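User: These chains co-purify. Model them together.
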Amino acid sequence: MTHPTVIRPAEHAVYSADKMGKSTIFESTRLLVGLNAFESGQAHALHAHAGMDKVYSVLDGEGVFLLGGRRMLMKESDLLVAPDGVPHGVRNTGHGRLLVLAILAPNPGRK
Amino acid sequence: MTHPTVIRPAEHAVYSADKMGKSTIFESTRLLVGLNAFESGQAHALHAHAGMDKVYSVLDGEGVFLLGGRRMLMKESDLLVAPDGVPHGVRNTGHGRLLVLAILAPNPGRK
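Assistant: Joint model of the two components:
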């Protein structure tokens, strides 16, 4: 993707029949802006990032988010922050697709 | 705000009659997650951040975003990335309010 440009996240979503689809919108050493795309029933297992914060923003659909021992139903426009080391996960419990903007700082792949 | 919790960004928006309103949703050394709230006609003048990337996500309304010499009309769910050093600004050219999620990495106030 060439910058600067207006990004319509839904156009960059990658869904997969096998498992959650991932795509990258932007990355630098400081930041990874990506999409997690879930078909109904798909999940991202509980995991944590050391030394990184993650922001989730629900762009479409709804699902259950796990964070620090809590379960929360999230829907379009809801936001969640998983700070450094706090376990988090996602399950698409809805009937339709779930699209989530996932922003990680710093970028885990470019340390 | 206590974490973990589902964040509904609109509930944290601060509008001001004088100028763009700012509020903070989450911050660490790595990340600042905030809101920029514009009444109709209000603007955030062109500026740049050295050593930081910014992600804008339009939550409500529409406006003109400046980035690296380009002018782009952005509306709800559109996203823009202003990488390190690239000048950017915003003007609410719509009739209603404009609410923008602004994520900076790293946090300019906690270096």
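The interface with chain B takes residues 3-10, 25-26, 28, 30-31, 33, 51-53, 55, 57, 59, 65, 67-68, 70, 72-74, 77-84, 86, 101, 103, 105-106 of chain A (CB under 8 Å).
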